[in-house]
Design goal:
By secondary structure, the protein is mainly beta. The chain contains one helix and six strands. The chain has a six-stranded antiparallel sheet, with no helix packed on it.
Length: about 120
């Protein structure tokens, strides 16, 4: 299973210090089996908030030890696509849903100007 984030754009929460990846593609490959699922942001923000905005000394020490500068949670509405190619099953479809992103540190978020590479793999 692999995940690929792409299409960086400005985060809908102005306080968020970076851009964000507005598309996430999950891909599964095993022998002749394939499954692909893509979430694409619809620009409909459901919630975005920063956690631990004023850490205690102990929290700050723990976050520093883990290399975490900020913690953010975002949920937004998505358009979804699914393609399955399994033995005896070949189908695809579209729908709507939500994508939740818990960002523990901003080192993997694209820069604020949206100049990140078009594909960031996790």
């Amino acid at each position: 299973m692999t995940a690929r984030e792409s299409d960086p754009k400005p985060h809908p929460e102005p306080a968020y210090p970076r851009d964000y990846y507005s598309k996430v593609h999950w891909s599964y490959r095993h022998g002749g089996e394939r499954a692909d699922f893509t979430f694409t942001d619809t620009d409909q923000l459901i919630v975005a908030r920063q956690y631990v905005t004023e850490p205690t000394r102990a929290q700050k020490a723990a976050l520093d030890k883990l290399g975490i500068d900020e913690i953010w949670y975002t949920r937004y509405a998505t358009d979804n696509t699914l393609t399955l190619a399994l033995p005896g099953v070949h189908t695809s479809g579209t729908g709507t849903g939500t994508l939740e992103a818990a960002q523990f540190g901003l080192s993997t978020a694209p820069p604020k100007n949206g100049t990140a590479s078009p594909g960031h793999s996790k």
